[in-house]
Amino acid sequence: MNRRIALLLVAVAALAGVVASKAPAFGQGDADAAPIYGVKLPCGYRDWRMISVANVGEPVNDLRVKLGNDLAIKSYREGQPFPDGAIIARLAYRAVTSEENNKVFRAAAERQGVPPEQITKLLAGSFIAGPATNVQFMVKDSKKYASTGGWGFAQFTNGKPDGEAVHQTCFSCHAPAKDLDFVFTRYSP
Amino acid sequence: MNRRIALLLVAVAALAGVVASKAPAFGQGDADAAPIYGVKLPCGYRDWRMISVANVGEPVNDLRVKLGNDLAIKSYREGQPFPDGAIIARLAYRAVTSEENNKVFRAAAERQGVPPEQITKLLAGSFIAGPATNVQFMVKDSKKYASTGGWGFAQFTNGKPDGEAVHQTCFSCHAPAKDLDFVFTRYSP
């Protein structure tokens, strides 16, 4: 790339950063905040404790885990609704076949005398977590997010917030779970 | 049950406990320890951090998550092999359909104009974690478990160790993963 163009891009990026940092928290947010709700990527979420696991079928075809910060986990274990400050994270990974695992499953199933057609079905339905797809968050703040059940929503891909269109879909999907404080996921023992 | 038989059973169980408590660690173990390796249910494993997620197809039909104690997580992040004291837990849950989730997925997919046959496929392949099936552990102790790659293995169902037959199958399945310190699961970001 031409050096002057590169410098120009750096300058534009820096300017965008300045403008964004002056935007209201509940608006477009700054460069690191997700649109609409202004949620930033929470620090250390990868170290949070596990709430439960799930998967979504084709064409989404993922394996997903829900993690919670300390307030969320405490609330799950002691009783909802969630207090302000509770955050639930949904990490998702492309579901991929592991030839290495399937070789071992096949050998174990054969030793147990499982019929070949059942082994084929077992292996075809077995997946491990591949590359991460995106990470979603629900952040409880009953005042700031009063109009959306007390929750702010965010989705990040490769550490960057996704666009406004994605974020406009969050609350309408969660609204049917009103009786459970808008959270679908139950805690797994 | 006849009261005398019941008392006899209690006495036998108590006696078995006394005998077992004098058994060597690498033997039948006591009532709380899994056979062969003598691994007990580690305290607080449900609070450990997440390594990765996976699922196994029918007829097992589960959703599973791997958690690691601090030594295991540190080793995954900084480089294997695992040090003595590292423990990896595999929690598994029956994969069940959530009518509640599927209703929301269907509505969202319909809004996006996804064809009905694709929606049917999406919902048929979407599961959440149902009842726990069992919990497995790999405990690293390079001296105690020298003959099985430095790992002791254990499986618990409803908090109780499973039988010897199950534990005889652990190492033979993990042996092919020798180049990865006998661990199949990779760390997910």
How does the SSE layout of this entry go?
The structure is a homodimer of 189-residue chains.
Chain A: H1 3-21, E1 49-56, E2 62-68, H2 70-78, E3 87-96, H3 99-111, H4 116-124, E4 127-140, E5 151-157, E6 160-161, H5 164-167, H6 170-174
Antiparallel strand pairs in A: 1-2, 2-3, 3-4, 4-5, 5-6
What is the general shape of chain A?
elongated
Q: Would you tell me the overall average pLDDT of chain A?
A: 87
Beta-strand share of residues of chain A: 25-35%
Class from secondary-structure proportions of chain A: alpha+beta
**Total number of strands of chain A:** 6
* Distance between the amino and carboxyl termini of chain A: 54 Å
What does this structure look like?
2 copies of one chain form a homodimer. Chain A is of the alpha+beta class and 189 residues long. Chain A has helices spanning 3-21, 70-78, 99-111, 116-124, 164-167, 170-174; strands spanning 49-56, 62-68, 87-96, 127-140, 151-157, 160-161. The model of chain A is unreliable at 1-29 (pLDDT under 50). At the A-B interface, strand 1, strand 2, strand 3, helix 3 and helix 4 of A face strand 1, strand 2, strand 3, helix 3 and helix 4 of B.
List keywords for this structure.
homodimer; 189 residues; alpha+beta; 6 helices; elongated
At a glance:
The first copy, chain A, is an alpha+beta fold. Chain A has 6 helices and 6 strands, in the order H-E-E-H-E-H-H-E-E-E-H-H. In chain A, strand 1 and strand 2 (62-68) form a beta hairpin.
